[in-house]
Amino acid sequence: MLKFVDDEKLGVYRVGEPSECLRTSVQSAREIQRARFSCLQAVDIACDADMRMGEIRQFRNLPEDGQNLICAAACIAMKVIEAVYL
Question: pTM for this one?
């Protein structure tokens, strides 16, 4: 079941995460990704965004409910695209 954000919450201004905290999080994620891909022969994969289908299949570790969530999101995205462009 999808949860929608209340209209009242959309207008609430929230202060974001400080830049230094965000920078630390990004650097940590990049280190994890570098370690993950260090075993590969491919030199053109430095982060998750560079992965192709073969690497996705190799490194995925989503439980079944996570896979179901991704499939449901993809189906909704396709319906939105169809509604907008067709």
Answer: 0.48
